[in-house]
Amino acid sequence: xxxxxxxxxxxxxxxxxxxxxxxxxxxxxxxxxxxxxxxxxxxxxxxxxxxxxxxxxxxxxxxxxxxxxxxxxx
Length: 74
Description:
Order of helices and strands: HHEEE
Number of strands: 3
Strand content: 15-25%
Largest sheet: 3 strands, antiparallel
Shape: globular
Number of helices: 2
Radius of gyration: 12 Å
Distance between the termini: 25 Å
């Protein structure tokens, strides 16, 4: 999930992922990957839910269906 967030954000901002602030400064990337990542027998991934948080100068919305939405704040 953290890779998907970086990709979506870089596409939204028309820049390379390496130009973005470290995602780990805004969210726990291990928790994102565990809760919203691929299901495995070792992962307590969510069956239903979503999360919204600020990342640098955008708002990130993710859900358990794997949808990542990047929004400019109002």
